[in-house]
Amino acid sequence: MFFLHLLDFHHIFCLRVHLSVGPVSTCLSAQCPPVCRPRCSCLPMRALVFVALLFCLNDAATHQFTEEEMAALRQRIKSMFYHAYNSYLDNAFPYDELRPLTCDGQDTWGSFSLTLIDALDTLLVLGNRTEFQRVASLLQNTVDFDIDVNASVFETNIRVVGGLLSAHLLAGRAGMELEPGWPCSGPLLRMAEDAARKLLPAFQTPTGMPYGTVNLLHGVSATETPVTCTAGVGTFILEFATLSRLTGDETFENVARRALRALWKTRSDIGLVGNHIDILTKKWVAQDAGIGAGVDSYFEYLVKGAIMLQDEELLSMFREYDQAIQNYTRFDDWYLWVQMHKGTVSMPVFQSLEAFWPGLQSLLGNLDSAARTFQNYYSVWRQFGGLPEFYSIPQGYTVDKREGYPLRPELIESAMYLFRATGDHTYLQLGLDALESIERIAKTPCGYASVKDLRDHQLDNRMESFFLAETIKYLYLLFDPNHFLHGGGTEGVGSWEEGGEGGQCVLGAGGFIFNTEAHPLDPAALYCCSRHAQDRQELRDILLHLSQPTERPPPGQSDSIALKPGERKTSPLLSCPVQPFNARFSVLGQVFTEN
């Protein structure tokens, strides 16, 4: 039956693609499903049956990992991390990134020692409190955002602001000395706020949608292009709302929400958004709609923002988008690119960045659909030992000039979420496949190199900071279901900790939300600090009210306290239940005077 399902999938997909974009290749018409061929050359029917049968048997005999095996894999992942991390420190610091083929460094996103910021919370995830403390202190003394550098607003937010916020929220668990009132104050929080303030000039537009680049010293250049990608407009609510809730400054959350609402109003009549937009005119420059590059984290932040902030508006936005996505872009559990106004297929490709989608679906409880889509993506991984940036679904092969794999984390991320949701060890097998592929293909004497071409495993001279921030972190968490980030207590000092004024808040008890760079944020901290800020504001309002002189009625107006028709009695701001004098006197022996 499974074999028939594969053939049915192929026939249906061929028909849909044929009707949408014209005739497909002769290879495709020979009934050769992509999951069953390592290359585009097609197999005879007997061989096809045999390969499909092997595929079924392989899936049916999923290995069940023991606790000992998972512990051993965690040690291998730690070794992978430290090989990359130490290579960066020895050869590239203070540059942004390591060049693993030439054993030196380069600045890429703004000259912030980016890899160190991005990797900081990973140190604690792996249990290294000592190095976390050392690096946190080092960053406070060496990183300066007051520099004449053009920086990506999007990348600086997710990597720098997100990384510093996460490190700040994990500082207590890392054993750092905390300021009174933490997590509502602290040096790493101030650094995150400083970095975010450098991004605010980008949001000063008529529409509220931000420019893509900003100069950290001078603001937005007069010659800056107004065209930016959809994700570059809609990927701020997690970091900026966290900043506002922790610091009490509503500016950050307000600009992020304004950008989201402006983008929401630009969707097409069929409910889709394109890939690139002019932020000044609100005109779509690239009208391809999908869930991959240029759009992905916009949808991710609507869901995660709704969860973290308990925000029905964000969830409602995503659900409307999701309905259009399912109606127009989904074909047999693949997601294609379509024209945003017509819904016709424009690119029948799978992009590696789309692999976050099954994990996002799992957060909403759509497990059946998520599992089927994951299996499609996993079949591509098994074909190449990684996910090419673009994969042609009709041809079952890479797209020209898009054959690389820069060690991205998205499929591993989805595996982590789906394993947490289902306990299915198929997702652990993906983790093992990823670990072994990266070790065999990408490891160099000076770290791990991006794969330039998955067809022949040529390497590129770059190790992106997200390899340490995301790929390794998600791999480790996949094989550690009892980690404190999952609500367990095997790492650090326990499963929760005190925080806030007087230790009145319970923090770190679970429910962490990962930003799109895998930096975990604790919703409890946001509630803790915003509650204290609200209490302080209410107290200020009360004191201000009590300090104002009582207004006397104008001459000739009655001083009667009787209510007028339709008028309702209101309580004063500060009121207590009326008690008889003897009851007051009995409370701890105190005598209450009128003052």
TrEMBL record:
One of its GO terms (molecular function) is mannosyl-oligosaccharide 1,2-alpha-mannosidase activity. Ca(2+) binds at residue 516. The keyword Metal-binding applies. One of its GO terms (biological process) is carbohydrate metabolic process. GO terms for cellular component: endoplasmic reticulum quality control compartment; membrane. Its main location: endoplasmic reticulum. It is found in: Endoplasmic reticulum. The active site is at 155 (proton donor), 296, 389 (proton donor), 410. It comes from the Eukaryota. Gene3D superfamilies: 1.50.10.10. Its cofactor is Ca(2+). InterPro entries: 6hp_glycosidase-like_sf (IPR012341), EDEM1/2/3 (IPR044674), Glyco_hydro_47 (IPR001382), Seven-hairpin_glycosidases (IPR036026). It is an enzyme of class 3 (hydrolase). The keyword Endoplasmic reticulum applies. Pfam families: Glyco_hydro_47 (PF01532). Keywords: Calcium, Endoplasmic reticulum, Glycoprotein, Glycosidase, Hydrolase, Metal-binding, Unfolded protein response. Its EC number is 3.2.1.-. PANTHER family: ER DEGRADATION-ENHANCING ALPHA-MANNOSIDASE-LIKE PROTEIN 2. Belongs to the glycosyl hydrolase 47 family. Involved in the endoplasmic reticulum-associated degradation (ERAD) pathway that targets misfolded glycoproteins for degradation in an N-glycan-dependent manner. May initiate ERAD by promoting the first mannose trimming step of ERAD substrates, from Man9GlcNAc2 to Man8GlcNAc2. Seems to recognize and bind to exposed hydrophobic regions in target proteins. This is alpha-1,2-Mannosidase. It comes from Anabas testudineus. The lineage of its organism: Eukaryota, Metazoa, Chordata, Craniata, Vertebrata.
